[in-house]
Specification:
alpha+beta; Aminopeptidase; 13-stranded mixed β-sheet; 13 strands; about 35% strand; elongated; binds coenzyme A
C-alpha cells in the first residue's frame, strides 16, 4: 500500500537513493549524495519539512516531491501567495503515475494551507531557492523535456504550460569577443570590473547563493559618477556550476543574469559585457557557459543567439489553472 508523510531528519539517505534510481535525465546531478542535498536543500534558512513529501510502498521510500515559495518583491522574505512544486521524483514503479499524482496533490495542499493562490509546477530563475547545482544547470528551468516522466506527472494532474525556458550553452574553445567599431567605442568609454564573491544584494540572493562561487562583472562609465565611481551601466553574474559541472566532467560557468540599466539598452552594452566576460572566463580555463532564458524574453534570446549560444534542452514551468 502507498502511504505519504512529510520529511523527517533521518530521510536524507532515502531521498538521495530515490534520486539515484529515478530517471531524471542528464539535467540532474548524479550520483546524488546526502552531502549534496544538505548543501542545496536542507541547509536553506527557508527549508520547511512540511513542504517536502515522501511516498512509501509499505516501508520502502519510492518517491518525493518538494513544494516551495518565491521571494517577495523586496527579496527580504518569502511571498507565500505564489508557490510551486519544484520536483516530483519517483522511482520506476508499477504505480509510478499514481504515486506522482499523490505527491503533487499533497504539495498543493501544503501550498494552499500556507496561503498560495497561484500554484505552479517546476522552479524558475525566480524560484531557484532549492536544487541550484543539483537540477537544471545555470538556474532552475522549470521541468526539463529530458525529465519526461516529471512533465507527464504535472500534465496528468491538470497543470498547463505557463512558460518555456531555453537552456542555452556556448562552448568557449577559441572564443574571441567580436571586434567592431561599436565595441571599440564602448571599450574606450567604459571600464569592466571583476568582483569575486560580491556582497549579496538581498536576503534572497544571499540565501540562494551562499556556498557557491559567484563572480560579478560590472560595466561602468569612465566619467565620475555620484559616489566618485563611474556610473553603473550594467552587470553580469556567473557562478561555478558545482557540483553539476563536475558530474558532467567540464569546467562550466552558469550565467545567472545580465542586466543593462534601462536608458542604456540597445546600445550594444550587453553584447560587449557578456563577450568580455566569456573571454575572461575562457582565459581561466572555463570551457562551457550555460544560461537560461524564457522564450518570452525576445531581447535576451536574440542577445545570446548573436553571441553563439545554442539550445541544449528546454524546460516548462507549469501552472495549475
Ligand atoms: C537583455 C538585455 C541585457 C540586453 O541588453 P542590451 O545592452 O540592450 O543589448 P545589446 O544592445 O547588446 O543588444 C544585443 C542584441 O540583443 C537584441 N536585443 C536587445 N534588446 C532587444 C529588444 N528590446 N528586442 C529585441 N531584440 C533585442 C538585438 O538582437 C541586439 O542586437 P542588434 O542591436 O544588433 O539588433 C537588456 O534588455 C536587459 O537588461 N533586460 C532586462 C534583464 C534581462 O532580461 N536579462 C536577460 C536574462 S537574465
Amino acid at each position: 500500500m502507498i502511504t505519504f508523510r512529510c520529511f523527517r531528519n533521518d530521510d536524507p539517505p532515502r531521498l538521495a537513493g530515490i534520486w539515484r534510481t529515478a530517471n531524471l535525465g542528464p539535467g540532474a546531478m548524479q550520483p546524488m549524495t546526502v552531502t549534496h542535498l544538505e548543501a542545496g536543500v536542507f541547509s536553506k534558512p527557508y527549508f520547511d519539512r512540511e513542504g517536502l513529501m515522501l511516498a512509501f510502498d509499505d516501508d520502502q521510500a519510492v518517491g518525493f516531491a518538494h513544494a516551495a515559495f518565491a521571494p517577495n518583491t523586496d527579496r527580504d522574505a518569502l511571498d507565500t501567495s505564489t508557490g510551486t512544486t519544484l520536483l516530483v521524483v519517483v522511482e520506476p514503479h508499477e504505480h509510478e503515475a499514481d504515486i506522482a499524482a499523490g505527491l503533487i496533490s499533497r504539495c498543493e495542499d501544503y501550498l494552499r494551507r500556507r496561503g498560495a493562490r497561484t500554484i505552479l509546477g517546476g522552479g524558475s530563475a525566480e524560484m531557484a531557492g532549492f536544487y541550484l547545482g543539483l537540477y537544471g544547470g545555470a538556474l532552475i528551468p522549470g521541468i526539463l523535456d529530458s525529465s519526461a516522466a516529471m512533465q507527464r506527472a504535472f500534465l496528468a494532474s491538470g497543470y498547463e504550460a505557463a512558460d518555456r525556458i531555453a537552456v542555452l550553452r556556448r562552448p568557449l574553445a577559441g572564443f574571441r569577443p567580436p571586434v567592431n567599431r561599436l565595441q571599440l567605442a564602448i571599450r574606450r568609454a567604459s571600464e569592466l570590473r571583476v568582483i569575486d564573491e560580491p556582497v549579496r544584494r538581498t536576503w534572497w540572493e544571499a540565501a540562494t547563493t551562499t556556498g557557491i562561487a559567484l563572480r560579478r562583472y560590472e560595466l561602468r562609465g569612465r566619467q565620475e559618477g555620484p559616489e566618485g565611481t563611474g556610473a553603473l551601466l550594467g552587470s553580469a553574474s556567473f557562478w561555478d556550476m558545482q557540483p553539476l559541472a563536475s558530474a558532467w566532467g567540464v569546467p562550466a560557468a552558469g550565467l545567472m543574469n545580465v542586466t543593462i540599466e534601462g536608458p542604456r539598452r540597445r546600445q550594444g552594452l550587453a553584447s560587449y559585457l557578456v563577450a568580455e566576460a566569456l573571454h575572461d572566463l575562457a582565459a581561466e580555463g572555463v570551457t562551457l557557459v550555460e544560461t537560461q532564458v524564457s522564450e518570452a524574453n525576445a531581447a535576451a534570446t536574440s542577445l545570446f543567439g548573436k553571441l553563439g549560444f545554442q539550445a541544449a534542452d528546454h524546460g516548462t514551468v507549469f501552472r495549475k489553472p
